[in-house]
C-alpha cells in the first residue's frame, strides 16, 4: 500500500489516523457485529455515534447553547438556496459580498428567492473592502459572504462586525482550520468534503431565532426547523459520512484543538507563500492580507506552457491533484488540516527542483 501527498481541493485528504480507525471498525463497529454503513439511523448505536460527533464538534468550536448543529445532505450549493428559503423572515432583500467564484454562485441562486444587493465586490486588482467596513442596514434579511474562496484562494482573516442583521457564511473550505467565534454569526455552513470529512455531508450551525421562518414552498427536507426537530433525521442522513466526520472531530481534539490547527495551518501556508514569493518562476497574485491559508493558487507567469509538465512530474513525484480549477487554470495546492507539514515540504522541494531545471 502507498499513500501519496494529496493536495486536492475537495473531496480532499483525510487524516491517516482517521482512515485507519475507520478501516479497523469497518466490518464490525465496536463489537456490535455490523458496519456503521449497515446500521439503522434510528438504532441506539448510530444515535450514540451521531450524538458524540455533535458533542465533539460543539466542544471544538465552542458552539453556544442557542445554536443548533445540523448534519444534512445536498452540499454547500444546496444551502445557497436553502438559506434564502429559510431566513428571509418576511423581508425581500438580502446583502451579499462577492469575493469570487462561489460568492457568484451563491448570489445567482439567491436571486430566485429575493432581491440581492452586492454590498462589496472584489476588484480587478484583487482588493475588496475590509469586512469591518461592510455596511448593511436592517432592510436586509441577512448578510452572506464566503469566508474562503476555494478556487480563487481568497480568505477573509477577520470576521465582519455586523451586529444588526444575521451574518451568514459559507465556510466550506475553512471551517475547523482555525478558531471561530460562532456567536458572531446567525448561520455558518460547510460542505464536509474539504476540511471535515467525506463528501455527502453538509454541516449547518444556526442560531435558534432563525429557524421556523421557512417559505411555504420549502421542501420539508430543506426546512431547518423540521430538521432541528428531527435532530437532522427527518430523512435518512448520510450516516457513514457523519460517522467519519465524528472521527475527524475526535482527531482534531487529539491534535490539540483549533488553536493548534491554526498554528500548524498558518505555518504551512506561510512556508509555501514564501517559497512562491522568493522565486521569479512561480507567482500568486492574491494581495497578501487576503491570501488563503487553505488554498494556494499559483502559476508560472513566464512559463505557462510548462504547467502541464509541472503537473505530470509532480504526480510522478507523488504529489497529487495540484491542477488549478478550470475557471482559473494554473496550479493550486490545498493545505487542509489533513495535509501534513511533510507534504508541504515535499511540494516546496519539488517546486524548487523544477525551477532549477526549467527556470
Ligand atoms: C466546494 C465549495 C462549494 C460547493 O460545494 P458542494 O458541496 O459541491 O455543493 C461551495 N462553496 C465553497 C466555498 C466551496 O469550497
Question: Could you please describe the fold and organization of this structure?
Answer:
Helix 4 links the parallel strand 3 (93-98) and strand 4 (115-121). The protein has helices at 16-25, 44-61, 75-87, 101-110, 224-229, 239-255, 257-278, 307-316, 341-358; strands spanning 5-6, 67-72, 93-98, 115-121, 140-146, 148-149, 154-155, 167-170, 187-191, 202-207, 295-298, 319-320, 331-334. 35% of the residues lie in helices and 16% in strands. The strands form four sheets. Strands 2-10-9-8-5-3-4 form a seven-stranded mixed β-sheet. A two-stranded parallel sheet has the order 1-12. A two-stranded antiparallel ribbon has the order 6-7. The chain has two domains: 16-254, Type I PLP-dependent aspartate aminotransferase-like (Major domain) (Aspartate Aminotransferase, domain 2); 257-358, Aspartate Aminotransferase, domain 1. By secondary structure, the protein is of the alpha/beta class. The two termini are 35 Å apart. The site of pyridoxal-5'-phosphate (PLP) has 12 residues, from helix 3. Pyridoxal-5'-phosphate is lined by residues 10, 75-77, 102, 146, 150, 170, 172-173, 191, 194.
